[in-house]
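Quick one: structure for this chain?
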Amino acid sequence: DKSYGIEVAKLAGLPAEIVSRARGVLSELESKHIQKTKVHKDQIELFEERNHRPLNESEKAVLSEIQGLDVNNMTPLEAMQKLEDIKQKSLFNPEA
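Got it. Here's what it folds into:
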């Protein structure tokens, strides 16, 4: 009753074993999703400094630049180009 696809398969005449297995898989996936959601709610914010080392000047510059972007008025290509520009400026070095 939680998946129309399973119900459609049942109505289409798929064998009961397949329908039963599909319900089991769905139940397992839903269980894992619930567990994952609980973990997600407990996760910390990415830039919450009290739980991370302080940002260096380059990282602060990158963060400031990203925060200043009007992403709602950028095309995906423009956004990708902006990220490439940041990378090329060597403002951010993930290996540092």
